[in-house]
Design goal:
3-stranded mixed β-sheet, disordered N terminus, 13 helices, alpha/beta, disordered C terminus, 8-stranded mixed β-sheet
Length: about 550
């Protein structure tokens, strides 16, 4: 193995690099939960690893509010991912915990990183446009905004945006493929969107004849056609009704109640139809997690998903993404403020809303607001193998399996339009059950002729339809573990990541408890936390 220039195990480093930059076996860019697992698995195999995270915290959505873990079939979550949930269980004095508090999840991830030889660099973002240096088909080094460079034999892009991948010249896409491109019946614009849809008719235009705010246009497009639109993002809010651990919802800057006119009309129509106002649970999904808190997600036609507000995000520059982040904050915070303060909201609903607030002991350095925007989907690589609808429905076994997925094929709404009847209508939500399917190693690989020493376990090679189930955090972690082991193998032998011994990789994964294939006799031996709802629901994603 290469000579290791490592600081003490688990040291958080923000100091300037020495004049001679260290060379690692593996550099992981992106400290998402997948990135953490990539780093840990490589280090446990003996590799020297640098884990670089653009922000000041590790874990991405796993520590950023998504605490209602999207496990699908719990029994297929194996390897280091399952180790993580078991370690959470020890904190809560139970065999395994799937619904932890965000700060506890972050603490456990940090503890896991202190064990192997991983050097962590926080607040280090890839230099824009010129951050990747290549020598032919190999990435030679990457450079951060502060000028620090990192060289390695192998690199892994574990960010939600795929910035390293993109700068390395890897082919990628975003948005939705059409049905014809890969023969996918679920692809493209959806003809019918029954879930998270308006249950009452609400006129899409105001008295002035103009479309109301938060409606993007008229007509959804031709069913099955492709577009560059992206499923909605939101923040997964950690809320509580515990007055001793609560701060009130913030009022966002430049708050304008007029942008919620559609919501006000929807509530009025609900009252007229049902004889009562909607409940909080009708307008969002406050899923109970540990500590008397929630992972609050989108639910219904007009909720915390900022539909249409993210279309430019996947391929945008940093400044544009920061603007989009702020716009999402303004929208979601304004949504909460409107429901809890606006006189057009029935007092019964306002009173219920005001029993809630943000958890005071979470996200303490960001005014208790989640640090991580829920980037459900951004860029997607076009690599050695493109995983499609067939791979999650009919062709579910793979010779190069590195793990399994099992959650619904699940995409949030993509757009809100005025339909032919003149009413507001959402389009794009897709919820189709799948059976456990095997994940091929090939979807982590760029095309061989483009880059030979890069692994991509988050913005991986899949269509929108297949990505809609692969995008769950336990699956990201499973793929991250495989990427870390593969990186160590490639670095040790000095070969392209495409040429590692897949059987040897699979053996290592199985030895750590990885689940690479499904046996109907499999059963999860560990109990679900008391009081937890283990069903896949349409709202917990």
């Amino acid at each position: 193995m290469l000579h290791r220039f490592l600081l003490a195990a688990g040291l958080w480093s923000a100091a300037l690099a020495a004049p001679a930059a260290p060379e690692y076996d593996l550099v992981v860019y992106g400290g998402t939960a997948s990135g953490v697992m990539t780093a840990i698995s490589a280090a446990r195999q003996g590799a020297s690893v640098a884990l670089i995270e653009p922000t000041g915290h590790l874990g991405g959505m796993v520590t950023g509010g998504l605490s209602a873990t999207d496990f699908g079939r719990k029994e297929v979550v194996g390897g280091i991912a399952r180790e993580f949930y078991r370690r959470l269980g020890k904190v809560y004095n139970e065999p395994i915990t799937w619904y932890p508090e965000p700060h506890v999840a972050e603490r456990v991830l940090n503890e896991m990183l202190k064990e192997p030889s991983v050097t962590v660099f926080l607040n280090s973002r890839l230099r824009e446009k010129t951050g990747v240096e290549k020598d032919g088909k190999r990435i030679r080094s990457i450079t951060m905004e502060d000028g620090r460079s990192f060289t390695a034999r192998v690199f892994a892009d574990c960010g939600y945006e795929g910035d390293l991948m993109a700068q390395a010249g890897v082919t990628y896409t975003w948005g939705r493929e059409g049905q014809d491109e890969f023969g996918e019946s679920l692809a493209g614009v959806r003809e019918r969107t029954p879930k998270h849809q308006f249950k009452v008719n609400v006129k899409a235009r105001g008295a002035d004849g103009k479309l109301l705010p938060e409606i993007q246009g008229t007509g959804k497009g031709v069913p099955g056609s492709a577009d560059r639109k992206v499923q909605a993002y939101n923040f997964r809010l950690c809320m509580t009704t515990n007055k001793d651990n609560m701060v009130p919802f913030p009022k966002p800057p430049d708050y304008d109640p007029a942008r919620y006119e559609l919501l006000a009309r929807m509530i009025e129509a609900h009252v007229e139809k049902e004889g009562r106002p909607p409940r909080v649970r009708d307008l969002m999904h406050p899923f109970r997690i540990k500590g008397g808190k929630t992972d609050t997600n989108n639910n219904g036609a007009f909720s915390t998903d900022y539909i249409g507000g993210n279309w430019d995000y996947p391929d945008a520059d940093y400044a544009t993404r920061e603007k989009i982040w702020q716009e999402h904050y303004n929208y979601v915070a304004g949504f909460l403020w409107f429901l809890s303060h606006d006189e057009r909201v029935p007092k019964e609903l306002r009173d219920e809303m005001n029993r809630w607030g943000l958890a005071k002991d979470e996200f303490t350095d960001t005014n208790h607001w989640p640090r991580q925007l829920y980037v459900r989907e951004a860029r997607r690589m076009r690599g050695e193998y493109v995983m499609t609808q067939a791979d999650i429905q009919t062709s579910r076994t793979k010779e190069d399996s590195i793990g399994m997925g099992s959650y619904n094929s699940d995409s949030h709404n993509v757009q809100r339009i005025e339909n032919e009847q003149g009413f507001a209508e959402n389009e794009g939500d897709m919820q189709v059950r799948v059976e456990p399917y095997e994940i091929p190693y090939r979807i982590l690989l760029p095309k061989r002729e483009e880059v030979e020493n890069l692994l991509v376990p988050v913005t991986l090679s899949a269509t929108h339809v297949a990505y809609s189930t692969l995008r769950m955090e336990p699956v990201y972690m499973i793929m991250g573990q495989a990427a870390g082991v593969a990186a160590q193998m490639a670095a040790e032998r000095g070969i392209p990541v495409h040429d590692i011994d897949i059987r040897a990789l699979q053996a290592v994964l199985r030895a750590s408890g990885g689940v690479l294939t499904y046996d109907e006799r499999m059963a999860d031996e560990e109990a679900v936390p008391a009081g937890a709802d283990n069903r896949q629901t349409t709202a917990v994603r």
